[in-house]
């Protein structure tokens, strides 16, 4: 083992000895514990996933520009629906 190997081993040993401690809970963590798991978010994600899938199929199979632009419109509608659902109380509010 060369000098570099000993230095690398010493560095690895020091890293293994260190432990990371985190607080159990903070006030901001409690307010954002859901990570966007709301009906508004899931509805928007599903609609956007369908829109992007249709858009990809439209480009691969042709290109079929009518289907592509319809998928762009569907993506815009999906984003709008997600925002409307959030405003109606099915999402989270910003603090």
Set out the fold topology.
Elements: H1 3-17, H2 27-31, H3 39-60, H4 65-90
What does this structure look like?
- By secondary structure, this protein is mostly helical.
- The chain has a domain of 65 residues.
- It is built from four helices and no strands.
- Helix 3 packs antiparallel against helix 4.
- It is elongated and about 65 Å long.
- The termini are far apart.
- 7% of the residues are buried.
- It holds the Pfam family DUF6704.
- This is HGxxPAAW family protein.
- Keywords: Membrane, Transmembrane, Transmembrane helix.
- InterPro entries: DUF6704 (IPR046550).
Uncertain regions: pLDDT < 50 for 5+ in a row?
A: none
Helix content: over 70%
Q: Which shape, going by the Cα principal axes?
A: elongated
Output the radius of gyration. 24 Å
One letter per element, helices H and strands E, the order comes to HHHH
Distance between the termini: 57 Å
Estimate the strand proportion. Answer: under 5%
- Please tally the β strands and state the result: 0
Arithmetic mean of pLDDT = 81
Structural class: mainly alpha
Instruction: Give the number of helices.
Output: 4
| Main sheet attributes: strand count, strand direction, barrel closure | none
Observed structural traits:
mainly alpha, 95 residues, elongated, 72% helix, single chain
Short description:
The protein has 95 residues and is mainly alpha-helical. Helices cover 72% and strands 0% of the residues. It has helices at 3-17, 27-31, 39-60, 65-90.
């Amino acid at each position: 083992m060369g000098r570099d190997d000993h230095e690398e081993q010493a560095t690895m040993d020091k890293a293994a000895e260190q432990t990371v401690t985190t607080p159990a809970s903070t006030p901001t963590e409690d307010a954002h514990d859901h990570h966007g798991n709301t009906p508004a978010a899931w509805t928007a994600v599903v609609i956007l996933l369908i829109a992007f899938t249709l858009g990809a199929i439209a480009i691969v199979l042709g290109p079929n520009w009518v289907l592509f632009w319809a998928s762009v419109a569907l993506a815009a509608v999906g984003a709008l629906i997600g925002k409307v659902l959030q405003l109606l109380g099915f999402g989270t509010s910003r603090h």
